[in-house]
Amino acid sequence: MKNEAKAALTPASTAEEIVAHLRTLGSQDNRQGMLRYGIRIDRALGVPRGVQRDIARKIKHNHERAFELWETGITEAQFIAALTADPELFTVEDARRWAAEFDSWDIVDGVSDLFVDTDHWRSLIEEFAEDEREFVRRAAFAMMAWSSVHRKREPEETFLTFLPIIERHSTDRRNFVRKAVSWALRSIGKRSSSLRAAALRIAERLAASDHKTARWIGKDAIRDLNSAATQRRLAAKSK
Questions:
Q1: Distance CA 147, CA 212 (A)
Q2: What number of other Cβ atoms are within 10 A of residue 93's Cβ?
Q3: In the structure, what pLDDT confidence band is assigned to residue 7 with cuts at 50, 70 and 90?
């Protein structure tokens, strides 16, 4: 029966049909596994992320349907919404409205990847970084991390402008913020040798800080950016 439901999904599938299909794939064991990774499960069905990506590939982009999926409030449906929305049609207000519902790091990171593809990504980073809500602020730094990988044509100067924002919020003790700040700093540093040098200067200042959270972020970044794997990757990119 589940295989039949899976085969029935097409680009013409409605949001209701997609949600019905997701419900056939939910697993209590998977939900408990998510909980062990610090993921909130009260809105989740327990469908593996890889399966969600497969569904998104099958149903393809449909901007209106993506918003219908988001409105269900189901975590998996919202992730699929982020994969199938059209970033060219996604407005600042749309981003603010979705971000207001963030309540777990996994949906933040999934949707932030969509935000990076919009025309408003840089202004959203600046706005979200100053937002006091934990998961909205996390979105800013998740976007920095994603953009350092996906925005391949973006000049290095853009990423240099993110470093002061990273340093300014390096004292945010909240777990899901500090981890995202570290992720952003490390990702920017892995983009190029010159950005690595700039990121390391920030990391070294943070590592010498009297603030416990800033110190952790700095040491975490130094360890990653000085690793043999990172240096080999950057050396290969520069050839």
A1: 28
A2: 9
A3: low
Task: Please compute the mean of the pLDDT values over residues 2-13 and round it to a whole number.
Answer: 70
pLDDT value for 239? 74
User: First and final CA of the chain: distance in angstroms?
Assistant: 53
Neighbours of 176 (CB within 10 A): 20
Tokens of 7: 């085969």
Tell me the domain boundaries of the chain.
1-86, 90-239
pTM of the model: 0.94
Q: What whole-number distance in Å separates Cα of residue 98 and Cα of residue 119? A: 16
The residue type at 146:
W
CATH for the stretch 90-239 = 1.25.40.290
Q: What is the 3-state secondary structure (H, E, C) of the chain?
A: CHHHHHHHCCCCCCHHHHHHHHHHHCCHHHHHHHHHCCCCCCCCCCCCHHHHHHHHHHHCCCHHHHHHHHHCCCHHHHHHHHHHCCCCCCCHHHHHHHHCCCCCHHHHHHHHHHHHCCCCHHHHHHHHHCCCCHHHHHHHHHHHHHHHHHCCCCCHHHHHHHHHHHHHCCCCCCHHHHHHHHHHHHHHHCCCHHHHHHHHHHHHHHHCCCCHHHHHHHHHHHHHHCCHHHHHHHHHHCC
- Could you give the angle at the alpha carbon of 112 between the alpha carbons of 82 and 99, nearest 5°? 85
CA distance 84 to 87: 9
Cα(90)–Cα(231) distance, integer angstroms:
37
Axis crossing angle, helix 134-150 with helix 105-116, rounded to the nearest 10 = 50
